[in-house]
Structure formats: C-alpha cells, structure tokens
C-alpha cells in the first residue's frame, strides 16, 4: 500500500481518539466541580415529570409502533432525497422535476398500500 | 442553458425489459389494491402478460442483434462510465430467468386457489424480483450489480415467508433473510476491496486497472475474492455455504421454492461470472507464472465445486421429504455449474457457453420437477416420497414427464441434462482440470440413486388412492413444455449450443481490456 493510503486513514484514527477522549474527559472534568448529593427521587427514571408506575426494565411498547416507525421512515427518506433536489432544482430543470415526481409517485404507491392494509388504523 | 449534472447516452432501450417489468409490477400493485379479495388471480394473469411482454422485448432485441452499453458521465468529467451492458450473455441469461419466472407464475396462480393470504403480493413481488435478476445479468458496474442483487433478494425474503399461517414458511422467511443479509454484507465488503484496488466500479475498465495494480497488491485481491466467494456461495447455495437452503426450500411455498432454485440461482451464476471471474482473470493469469505468492483461485473454485457435488448428493440420499431432497439436489446441480465457473479462466469463451447451456436446461428440468412436486404433494397433503406412490397408474403422462426431468437431472443420455454435463466436463478437461471432470462424473452417478427412488415409487409401489390426479391446463402446458424442451435439446443439443457458443464470443468483448 502506498504511504498516502495509510495517511488518509490517520484522520479516521484521529477522530476516533478525539471523540472518545472528549466524552470521557469532559465527564471527568465535570465530576471534579459538580456537587454530589444523591437522593431517592433523583434515581428514578425520567418520565416527563410523571411518577413511574412500573420498573424501567418492564416497560413494554405495543408492536404496532413498529409499523408507525416504518411509515415514518418512508417520509423521512423522502425528505432526505427531496432536499438535494430542491437545492439543485435550477440546474436539473424539467428532467429533475419529472424524476422527482416519479420518485414521489412510487412512495405514494407504498403509502396507498399501507393505507389499504389498515396500517394507519389503531385497533 | 446551464449544464445538467449527469449526461446519459439515451440508450434507454437497453433497460426496456427491466422497465416493462417494473412498470407492470407497479400497475399490478395498484390493481391489487383495488380488487376485491376473491378476484386476486387477475393480478396473476396480468403479471403473466407482463413477463411475456418482457420475453418478447428480449427476444426481439436478440433477433435484431441489439447490443451495447448504457453509459453516463458527470458533466465536466472526461470519459463515459458504463452502467448496463446488453450482450448475448446478458440476453440469454435474461431469457432463461424470464421463462423460469413465467413458469413459476403459472404454478403460483394455481397454488393460491383455496388459500387465504397475500395472493396479489406474491405475483408482483415475483415481477420485482425478476427485474433484479435481469439487472444482475445486465450490469456493467458494481453499483448496478449490487442494486440488482438487492432487488432480487428483498422480495425473495418476503416470498419465502408468504404463507403466514404456516410456521415452516415463517421460519423459511426469517432464515433466508438473516443468511441473505449476511451474504449481502460479505459481497459488499468484497466489492469495496475491488473498488479500492482498481479505483473504479466499472466492470469493463476493471480488469486492466487490476492488472496494473496486481504485482504489489496480491494479498488484497485474495481477500476480495474470499469475501465475494463467501457471499456469492450463499446466493448460489453451494457447500459450505448451503446451510440455509434445505430449510428455506422446505418451508417456502412450492412455487417460491421453484423460483429460488431456478431464477435466483441462475442470477447468482450470472453475477458470479461478472464479478467473481471477469475482474480476477488477470489475477488468475498471474498465478500461472512461477513468481506468484497468492492463493490458487481456480483450485479453490474447483474444491468448492467438488464439495457441492459431494455434499449435495450425499445429503440428498438420506432425505425423505421431496422438497428437502430437491434442495440438496439443487446444491449438487450448482456444483456442476461451478465446474464450469472453475474452468472459465482457462477456457473463457467455450465454457461460458456450456454454462449458459446447462443453466437453460437446468431451468427446464427443475421447473418441470417442481410442477409435479407441487401437484402431487398438494393433492396428497404429504411432502414425503410416499406421496408419489403409484403415480404411474394414477396419471401416466405426469409420471412420464417427471421421469424425463429426473433422468435429465441425473444426466441420463438422450436427455438435455446429459449434454449439459458432457459440455461442462469436457471443457473442464480442456482447461487442465480433468480431475474435476472425473470427480463430477463419479459424483453424478450417486444422484441416480435418489432420483430413481422417485421413479420406483411412481411405477413399482401400489398407490394409496386409485383416483387420477387432475392437473389444470396452465400447469399441463408448463410441464409439457419443460419435458419436450428437455427431450428436444437432448436429441438436437446444437440448436441451443449454437447460440450458447456465440455467448462466449460476445462475452469476450467485455474482456478486451484484459492483457
């Protein structure tokens, strides 16, 4: 391997080391200065101010959330691809417009499928 | 007018078959959503028409000698990048896969009769998967190849688990997904090495780029080869990467099993030719020189071939479940084709032709066998060998067709399977791999033992019921076409071997860059 090849990986190693060092370093630094007064209330899991009614390890989610998350990904990815299209719109012209609408139509078919299969209905 | 970001040559006709399949698939999906539950077979007939249209497109393009590259370039860059190649190899492979998909769809329409569930999905998922399979044979670029592979794989995982009420089908879907994901990761990792070494994803430019890098970087080529072989070995289901195949073949709906064992496997071999053989030809050429220090790549392929033939045939001997038995049988069949792959670096043109010949014949005889398995096991409600008892008396024509397919799978003379093996093994001898050819001949004799078990059941065992087995028109036509094809190509193999030989020449045009 040419030396240049390995040098380009040096940046990755640098980021790795810096990332780890920064996280642990700052936490360690904080523990030197902050007050340390634990109490029972502070040790409970944070639930938006509400009192937790079950043990944290027993919290269960309805499996239907999975489908909603999947539907969210549909729109999420759509946005990811629409942003660069919008930015480059002036250079892509009609070709880009048609391409984007083909893309949207395909996602639309996916949405229609989910709708028809009653994914959007909470039963 | 400001320049566009990407410039394309406008040769969209090279993707016409794929566009027909994808467009048809999307329309089928919308139609399926609008249809009431009891009329879903309409989607099946529509999908059949779409596949027929795609077959027509490929056949017409072959008739007109259409061939070339779909290319693009970034504005400001110099030189075109290839994405899709249409050569005779791609066209013949596409035809094999499309005909396989057509037959599977006919099976599928009747498989869903009297069943509840995801009928419409099964039809258009086959269309989408077949698009991916075609792209795998057509691609001239690693990225296109990878997208094609994913487009084949993802619908296949769903198809395997489509009988949701059946525990074994669920198991098949999940197992196929997990193993397949691992294989995909391995292939992508291997591809990343190829890209890192050659600096291009373009498969046409790759061999020459690799030849220039070769002397310094041999170790990394071996790593790339190992990962690609690992991943593609999973996809082609060859020993020692075959563990998923029996469970998935047994659990999946029978038409899907036929699809996996025919279309997916042919696509796997098309991809292996594009990515496991072509880029590595300079590497293999270097291995013949005295100075090389790397792995013996051809020998490794040959060893995998022997292991597949041995493992598949030996394990099939112990099976009593027809679908599991055919899973092992198709592992052994993949081993025979691997003999062709191993001989390819030595005898590129001729061996590519014999491989295409064998895959075409394999598609016919395996689909024929699966049509019979589907009808017999469904009628008996039993997937064991005993379900075939007395088929010779219950429906003599079906038993005859099945016998022809079985004899051809074993490689009996005057069937097409015999000529397929003959060509594969004789080119292996030409490529100085005669030990591999002898191993193949000896091991394929073993296969007769378990193929004859079916024949013994059909003709020499008293049936449990005397009633004849009624087969619908569509499946009768498919079974008849497969049988006639196997017999026809067995008597006049030149009809198919002629075009298949031309494949080798067209295939070499992609290798012009190889020193």
Give a structural overview.
The complex is a heterodimer of chains A (123) and B (515). Chain A has one domain: Methane Monooxygenase Hydroxylase, Chain G, domain 1. Helix content of chain A is 71%, strand content 0%. Chain A has helices at 3-33, 40-43, 64-87, 89-116. The N and C termini of chain A lie far apart (60 Å). The mean pLDDT of chain A is 83. With 515 residues, chain B is mainly α. Chain B has one domain (6-509). Helices cover 73% and strands 3% of the residues of chain B. Chain B has 20 helices and 3 strands. In chain B, helix 13 runs antiparallel to helix 18 and helix 14 packs antiparallel against helix 19.
Strand order of the largest sheet of chain B: 1-2-3
Largest interface: A-B, 12 and 9 residues
The CATH class assignment of chain A is: Mainly Alpha
Q: Which class do the helix and strand fractions of chain A yield?
A: mainly alpha
The H/E string of chain B reads EHHEEHHHHHHHHHHHHHHHHHH
Strand-pairing-aware structural class of chain B: mainly alpha
Kindly estimate the percentage of residues of chain A that lie in beta strands according to DSSP: under 5%
User: Oligomer, anyone?
Assistant: heterodimer
**Computed CA radius of gyration of chain B, to the nearest angstrom:** 22 Å
- Please bin the fraction of helical residues of chain A: over 70%
Please provide a brief summary of the model.
The complex is a heterodimer of chains A (123) and B (515). Chain A has 123 residues and is mainly α.
Task: Please tag this protein with its features.
heterodimer, A: 123 residues, mainly alpha, Methane Monooxygenase Hydroxylase, Chain G, domain 1, B: 515 residues, 3-stranded antiparallel sheet, 20 helices, 3 strands
Task: Give the topology, please.
The complex is a heterodimer of chains A (123) and B (515).
Chain A: H1 3-33, H2 40-43, H3 64-87, H4 89-116
Chain B: E1 6-8, H1 16-34, H2 41-63, E2 68-74, E3 81-86, H3 88-111, H4 119-138, H5 142-160, H6 167-198, H7 206-213, H8 218-236, H9 244-251, H10 254-277, H11 281-287, H12 297-317, H13 322-343, H14 348-380, H15 391-394, H16 396-410, H17 416-430, H18 434-460, H19 473-491, H20 494-509
Antiparallel strand pairs in B: 1-2, 2-3
Helix pairs in contact in B: 1-2, 1-4, 2-3, 2-4, 3-4, 3-10, 3-14, 4-5, 4-10, 5-6, 5-10, 6-8, 6-9, 8-10, 9-10, 9-13, 10-13, 10-14, 12-13, 12-18, 13-14, 13-17, 13-18, 14-16, 14-17, 14-19, 14-20, 16-18, 16-19, 17-18, 17-19
């Amino acid at each position: 391997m040419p030396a240049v090849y390995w040098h380009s990986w040096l940046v990755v190693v640098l980021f790795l080391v810096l990332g780890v060092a920064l996280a642990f370093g700052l936490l360690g630094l904080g523990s030197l200065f902050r007050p340390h007064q634990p109490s029972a209330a502070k040790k409970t899991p944070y639930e938006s101010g509400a009192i937790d009614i079950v043990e944290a390890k027993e919290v269960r989610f309805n499996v239907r959330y999975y489908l909603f998350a999947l539907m969210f990904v549909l729109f999420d990815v759509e946005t990811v691809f629409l942003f660069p299209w919008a930015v480059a719109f002036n250079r892509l012209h009609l070709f880009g417009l048609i391409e984007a609408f083909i893309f949207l139509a395909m996602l639309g078919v996916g949405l229609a499928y989910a709708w028809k299969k009653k994914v959007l209905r909470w039963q | 007018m400001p320049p566009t970001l990407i410039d394309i040559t406008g040769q969209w006709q090279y993707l016409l078959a794929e566009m027909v399949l994808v467009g048809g698939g999307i329309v089928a999906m919308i139609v399926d959503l609008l249809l009431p539950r009891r009329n879903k077979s309409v989607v099946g007939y529509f999908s059949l028409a779409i596949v027929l249209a795609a077959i027509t497109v490929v056949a017409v393009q072959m008739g007109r000698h259409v061939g070339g590259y779909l290319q693009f370039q970034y504005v400001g860059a110099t030189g075109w990048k290839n994405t899709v190649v249409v050569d005779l190899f791609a066209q013949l492979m596409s035809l094999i896969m499309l005909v396989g998909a057509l037959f599977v769809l006919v099976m599928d329409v009747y498989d869903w009769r009297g069943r509840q569930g995801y009928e419409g999905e099964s039809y258009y998922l086959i269309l989408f998967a077949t698009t991916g399979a075609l792209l795998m044979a057509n691609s001239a670029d690693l990225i296109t190849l990878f997208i094609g592979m994913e487009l084949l794989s993802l619908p296949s995982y769903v198809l395997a688990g489509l009988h949701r009420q059946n525990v074994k089908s669920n198991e098949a879907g999940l197992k196929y997904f997990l193993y397949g994901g691992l294989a995909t990761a391995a292939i992508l990792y291997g591809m990343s090495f190829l890209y890192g070494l050659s600096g291009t994803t373009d498969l046409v430019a790759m061999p020459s780029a690799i030849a220039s890098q070769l002397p310094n970087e041999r170790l990394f080529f071996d790593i790339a080869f190992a990962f690609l072989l690992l991943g593609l070995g999973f996809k082609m289901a060859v020993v020692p990467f075959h563990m998923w195949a029996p469970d998935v073949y047994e659990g999946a709906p029978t038409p899907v099993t036929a699809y996996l064992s025919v279309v997916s496997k042919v696509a796997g071999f098309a991809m292996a030719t594009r990515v496991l053989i072509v880029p590595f030809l300079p590497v293999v050429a270097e291995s013949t020189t005295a100075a090389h220090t790397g792995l013996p790549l051809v020998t490794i392929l040959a060893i995998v071939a022997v292991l597949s033939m041995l493992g598949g045939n030996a394990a099939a001997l112990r099976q009593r479940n027809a679908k599991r038995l055919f899973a092992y049988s198709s592992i052994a069949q993949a081993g025979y084709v691997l003999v062709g792959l191993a001989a390819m670096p030595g005898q590129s043109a001729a061996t590519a032709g014999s491989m295409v010949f064998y895959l075409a014949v394999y598609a016919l005889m395996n689909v024929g066998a699966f049509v019979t398995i589907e009808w017999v096991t469904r009628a008996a409600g039993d997937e064991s060998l005993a379900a075939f008892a007395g088929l010779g008396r219950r429906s003599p024509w079906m038993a005859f067709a099945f016998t022809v397919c079985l004899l051809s799978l074993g490689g009996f003379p005057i069937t097409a399977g015999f000529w397929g093996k003959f060509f594969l093994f004789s080119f292996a001898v030409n490529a100085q791999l005669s030990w591999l050819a002898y191993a193949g001949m000896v091991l394929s004799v073993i296969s007769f033992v378990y193929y004859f078990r079916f024949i013994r059941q059909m003709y020499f065992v008293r049936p449990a019921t005397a009633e004849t087995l009624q087969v619908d028109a569509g499946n009768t036509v498919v079974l008849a076409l497969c049988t006639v094809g196997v017999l026809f190509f067995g008597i006049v193999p030149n009809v198919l071997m002629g075009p298949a030989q031309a494949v080798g020449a067209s295939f070499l045009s992609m290798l012009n860059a190889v020193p």
